[in-house]
Amino acid sequence: MATTVLHKAATRGHADHGWLNAYHSFSFASWYNPDRVQFGMLRVLNDDTVSGGMGFGTHPHDNMEIITIPLEGDLAHKDSMGNESTIKTGDVQVMSAGTGIQHSEFNPNADQRTKLFQIWLFPKVRNVTPRYQQITLDTAEQKNNFAQILSPNPDDAGVWIHQDAWFYLADFSAGFTKQYELKKGGNGMYVFVISGTITVDGQELETRDGLGITDFKTLDFKASTDAKFLLMEIPMAQ
Question: What Pfam family is a match, any one (predicted)?
Answer without folding.
Answer: Pirin
